[in-house]
Amino acid sequence: SQKIEQNSEALNIQEGKTATLTCNYTNYSPAYLQWYRQDPGRGPVFLLLIRENEKEKRKERLKVTFDTTLKQSLFHITASQPADSATYLCALVPYNNNDMRFGAGTRLTVKP
Amino acid sequence: EAGVTQFPSHSVIEKGQTVTLRCDPISGHDNLYWYRRVMGKEIKFLLHFVKESKQDESGMPNNRFLAERTGGTYSTLKVQPAELEDSGVYFCASSQTSWFSAAFFGQGTRLTVV
After folding, report:
1. Cα B17 from chain centroid (whole Å)
2. Could you tell me the sign of the dihedral formed by the alpha carbons of B42, B46, B50, B55, in that order?
């Protein structure tokens, strides 16, 4: 069956460190993958999109990698800040349609 | 530019009643999605409209759920009759026609069935 798994429910790190979140998938052929941020009581907010033929994407302190051999995406936040604390969701869009499917999310807490 | 808006933000109804959720997508976005998150679980896909047509409704839980998007603008999701397990947060998202475009989410409707 198709699965999208994010490495852990919760991740706690110290301010200034790099946060690394993992998204693994099985039985999908994603055309692209997206990362979203969700704060309590709000809808997800788009952060980055990476296509199947791209290895890496960067945006300010954010970096995403996409390894279709390992079936894995890594999401990095460098120089993390307490304001980065939120739940981060990965979402896959398969080739056979353009419906997004989400992982359960990882709740990141950055401590001052 | 207005974002995706959802009405109501909260709804508490009794089991057996009917509830209608509304989503107004960003103007010009042909794609409209409905998702649901129930108690601590992941956001689950319900269905996808392209303009007024249902592209994929494979995520709809059962025939108590009916989604419409008349005229390809706003969409409604009706639950009739509501059951306890329908409680959760219902999100709507919209995106432009082309592939590789981000989806913009509304703030969600929190539905509680008692």
Report:
1. 18
2. positive
B42 contacts in A (CB within 8 Å)?
Answer: 4, 102-105
What does the alpha-carbon distance between residue B86 and residue A20 come to, in Å, rounded to a whole number?
34
Residues 60 through 79 of chain B touching chain A, CB cutoff 8 Å: none
Interface check for B93 against chain A (CB to CB < 8 A): the answer is: yes
In angstroms, the CA B77 to CA B59 distance is 13
Spell out the per-residue pLDDT of chain B, length 114, in tens.
679 999 999 999 999 999 999 999 999 999 999 999 998 788 999 999 999 999 889 899 999 999 999 888 999 999 999 999 999 999 999 998 656 788 899 999 999 999
**Bridge partner list, A88:** A37, A106
How close B52 gets to chain A, by Cα (Å)? 16
Asked if residue A34 lies in contact with residue A49, where contact means CB atoms within 8 angstroms, the answer is: yes
Is B48's CB within 8 Å of A46's CB? no
